[in-house]
Amino acid sequence: MNQLAIPHDHLETLELKNTLKKQKILRWLKGMLFLAPSIILFSIFLFYPLARSIYLSFFLTNNTGVPTVFVGFENYINIFTSPIFRNSLQSTFLFVLYTVPGAIIISLFLAIIANEKLKGIGFFRTMFSSTMGISVAAASVFWMFLFHPTMGWLNQILSYVGVDAIGWLTDPKWALLSVSISTIWMNIGFTFLILLGGLQSIDRYLYESADIDGAGYFYQLRRITLPMLSPTLFFVITVALINAFQTFGQIDMLTRGGPQNQTNLLVYSIYREAFMNYQYGPASAQAIVLFIIILIITLIQFKLGERKVHYQ
Questions:
Q1: Which fold has domain 74-308?
Q2: Longest dimension (CA), the chain
Q3: pLDDT tens-digit profile of 84-136?
Q4: Could you give the count of Cα atoms lying within 13 Å of 279 in the half-sphere of its Cβ?
Q5: Percentage of the chain exceeding pLDDT 70
Q6: Residue 132: DSSP 8-state
Q7: Sorted alphabetically, which keywords does the UniProt record give (predicted)?
Q8: Are 140 and 250 in contact (CB under 8 A)?
Q9: 3-class DSSP state for residue 16?
Q10: Cα 34 from chain centre
Q11: How many other β-carbons are positioned within 10 Å of the β-carbon of residue 1?
Q12: Running DSSP on this structure, what letter comes out for residue 72?
């Protein structure tokens, strides 16, 4: 029986396709090999905890965190009808409103000053960024002394000018604002360094051209500095928002959620519910709500960033 002969050119084409396919698979395997450590770490410390939290949010658990009773969406209903959780949600948004704009505006102002070519400016750059090297625990202890009702420096200064002492961390009217002030101070160092790096990356030729055209300082700031700095600003705003929603250390050190739950921010509320009350189901539900809030805000930021951020 006669067999059809396969043209030599066709054989070469098939061999080339097989070779390219093998090379593509080999490149994919090499890429996965390099990604494997990151995938493993993300799976252990991010994906698994997220999946576990979603799972636990539909259950009641015992004191060790083992699911006992399936309750569906009851945990979510309970937290949204709880005045404590609603107060925690309100305090968290107020805290974000106090800290994020404040830290970015102050850091931008300091970065603009530090970007000038002045004598001894290196010393001030070091001072402005020094808070980055201080841990949250150490900084909180420092602010605890400042806010002390009797021995604190702030109240001593007020007494010198004839003003009554303020319960910075004990008065419900002042506690959240006081923690916000300390948080702004803690965050300035990182934000300042990033913004200063962004300012130094702007081409000086743009300012020289603007000077030749007679543009004033504030016109250059509005038309050159801020537009060219927009990618850096977008980054620091995104990071600052996420960090503000995840604030825990200074709350635990300074107020422990008090007084009267005025500083009981979401992350501290989750911690209290899980590791003090051993209610892992409701705590997981709160964690998922926090995750959704951060996700929505981040997506909105990226959507706005497409219109407002200039990369050229």
A1: MetI-like fold (1.10.3720)
A2: 114
A3: 999 999 999 999 999 999 999 999 999 999 988 878 788 888 888 888 889 99
A4: 13
A5: 94
A6: G
A7: Cell membrane, Membrane, Transmembrane, Transmembrane helix, Transport
A8: yes
A9: helix
A10: 27
A11: 2
A12: T
Tokens 């997506």 correspond to what residue? 299
Ordered alpha helix ranges (H), the chain? 8-42, 48-56, 74-80, 83-114, 121-129, 136-146, 153-160, 175-200, 204-212, 217-220, 226-245, 249-254, 266-275, 280-308
Instruction: For residue 103, list its beta bridge partners.
Output: none
- 251, with CB counted inside 10 A (0-12, 13-18, 19+), is buried
> Which phi and psi (to 5°) does residue 150 adopt?
-115, -40
What the block records as the tokens of 42 is 């993300």
From CA 233, how far away is CA 239, in angstroms rounded?
Answer: 10
Cα→Cα distances 130→53, 225, 265, Å: 37, 25, 27
DSSP per-residue string spanning 45-71: IIIHHHHHHHHHTTEEE-TTS-EEEE-
Query: Facing residues of 60 across strands?
Result: 69
DSSP state of 202: S
Question: What is the DSSP code string of 239-280?
Answer: HHHHHHHT--HHHHHHTTT-STTTT--HHHHHHHHHHTS--H
Q: Cβ contacts of residue 174 below 8 Å, gap of 6+?
A: 166, 167, 168
Return the structure tokens found at 119: 């004598």
Q: For the segment 208-246, what is each residue's pLDDT rounded down to a tens digit?
A: 888 888 888 888 888 888 888 988 999 999 999 999 999
**Cα separation, 63 vs 283, whole angstroms:** 13
Rg (alpha carbons) of the chain, rounded to whole number: 27
